[in-house]
Design goal:
The chain is α+β, with helices and mostly antiparallel strands and 408 residues long. The protein has two domains: 249 residues, FAD/NAD(P)-binding domain (3-Layer(bba) Sandwich), CATH 3.50.50.60; 144 residues, Orthogonal Bundle (Helicase, Ruva Protein, domain 3), CATH 1.10.8.50. Helix content is 33%, strand content 26%. The strands form four sheets. Strands 1, 2, 6, 7, 8, 9 and 19 form a seven-stranded mixed sheet that branches. It has a seven-stranded antiparallel sheet with strand order 16-15-12-13-14-11-17. Helix 1 packs parallel to helix 6, helix 1 packs parallel to helix 13 and helix 4 packs across helix 13. Bound molecules: flavin-adenine dinucleotide (FAD). The site of flavin-adenine dinucleotide (FAD) has 38 residues, from helix 1, helix 2 and helix 13.
Length: 408
């Protein structure tokens, strides 16, 4: 069976849905094809179920520029549909956004399902045909154009234009299994290396398991190789049974991944990155307490016994009998708790995929392929990714909007 449309969009995540809504401005006959039994499975997981829709800081030129080549690619796109337009879109359609001090925007209801519901309502109002449980298994090309797409049930769809919005490879259980990457390659596009990003880090040390769930705020995280410091960061981390996660870890995970490819590295936690604690004074003031008690005045209780065992100090030793060498050792540990990273936890646990269809082969104003005449891209399939904080969904809204608007 063959069906004909003006636009066929492959992938019903945030990028594909926004592309469909945007394409409807041009009064076209649109079909949105999704292999799952429902749309936006990954969108529902975002922001721990609260959906960090966008980030106000994405309007700052320096924030965009800090993304390097990706930022250059996004500058004009964000000026067409950026933070303000995204906020207007959701608010005009009945979902107010709440902006936090750090720029993160969430729906006031704090529910990602409200975001999805709004999007689905828009698709319905715009009479967009939604085809669920339908996996695109093949894309056929004739000269420089796509001639048709074939679904797993052998149905064929012919459209004037096609938008690939199949997402990345992370959290494959949500449907993002990287199908679009193989389609793109088979159509002649170049793929930049695919790596898990915004991903927890696995470490050799088993003791992190005992501290699982303990978060440390505003700590320093330094990376060393052969005793030389390679990089320093500050932020919030969380211990997990496999190693480390939390906002800072997710944001730096790609850099750690790159560093590990080149050399052996050590990650060191600095509990007092701004100002070292005067341990001498602290012990002196609490001479009659045991060191375990003294330390719990300045670091989380759960961490105390580990810091003491790394410093090789008996936890019951009184402050007045701590030796100078012990005190110096303790000072050193508080500024350098070392961990040996094994690697990132992998695509199963990565929030996004780094890499994807090369930016060189996509027009940054329209998201149109420079290789295939009737192909456009939207969302994570493109070699674009931002830090945690709503940037990745904004990339989906922006590229989805532009691709949809441009398919005429
Ligand atoms: C746990 C988690 C939390 C996150 N939280 C945030 C957050 O708060 N803020 C933020 O900005 N970003 C967040 N992200 C990232 C964000 O979810 C992604 O950037 C975004 O979902 C990418 O959207 P997309 O539409 O490009 O792809 P996806 O959301 O992956 O959607 C692609 C769709 O295409 C479908 N598909 C794939 N292949 C085929 C095929 N062959 N045929 C038919 N359909 C197909 C898939 O089933 C899927 O539904 C989070 C990610 C994760 C995993």
């Amino acid at each position: 069976m063959v069906s004909n449309y003006d636009v066929a969009i492959i992938g019903g995540g945030p990028a594909g849905i926004m592309a469909a809504i945007s394409a409807s401005q041009n009064n076209q006959k649109i079909i949105l094809i999704e292999k799952n039994s429902s749309l936006g499975k990954k969108l529902l997981l975002t922001g721990d179920g609260r959906c960090n829709i966008t980030n106000q800081n994405f309007i700052k030129k320096e924030t965009v520029k800090s993304l390097g080549k990706q930022g250059d690619f996004l500058l004009s796109a964000l000026s067409q549909f950026g933070f303000k337009e995204t906020r207007d879109f959701f608010e005009k359609n009945g979902l107010e956004l709440e902006i936090q001090e750090n720029g993160k925007a969430f729906p006031v209801t704090q529910k990602s399902k409200d975001v999805l519901q709004l999007l689905i309502q828009q698709l319905k109002e715009k009479n967009i045909k939604i085809l669920l449980n339908s996996k695109v298994s093949r894309i056929e090309r004739k000269e420089n154009s796509i001639s048709k797409i074939i679904l797993n049930d052998k149905k064929e769809i012919i459209a004037n234009n096609y938008i690939l919005a199949t997402g990345g490879k992370s959290y494959p259980s949500t449907g993002s299994t990287g199908d679009g990457f193989s389609f793109s390659e088979s159509l002649g596009h170049t793929l930049n290396e695919l790596r898990p990003a915004l991903c927890p880090i696995q470490v050799k040390e088993k003791w992190t398991k005992e501290l699982s769930g303990l978060s440390l705020s505003n700590i320093g995280l330094n990376v060393f190789s052969d005793n030389n410091i390679l990089k320093k960061w500050k932020g919030d981390i969380l211990f997990a049974h496999f190693g480390l996660t939390g906002p800072l870890i997710l944001d730096i995970s790609s850099e750690i991944d790159e560093m590990m490819k080149k050399q052996k590295i050590i990650i060191a936690i600095d509990l007092f990155p701004d100002k070292p604690v005067d341990i001498y004074q602290l012990i002196n003031k609490n001479r009659n307490k045991n060191i375990k008690k003294i330390l719990s005045l300045i670091i989380p209780q759960r961490l105390v016994s580990y810091v003491l065992s790394f410093s090789k100090i008996n936890p019951n030793k009184k402050g007045n009998s701590i030796l100078k060498q012990e005190r110096l050792k303790l000072e050193g540990i508080l500024n350098k708790i070392t961990l040996h990273p094994i690697g990132l936890l992998g695509f199963d646990k990565a929030m996004i995929t780094k890499g994807g269809v090369s930016l060189k082969e996509i027009d940054s104003k329209t998201m149109k392929s420079k290789i295939i005449d009737n192909l456009f891209f939207a969302g994570e399939i493109i070699d674009l990714h931002g830090p945690c904080g709503g940037y990745n969904l904004q990339i989906c809204w922006t590229t989805g909007y532009l691709a949809g608007k441009s398919v005429v």
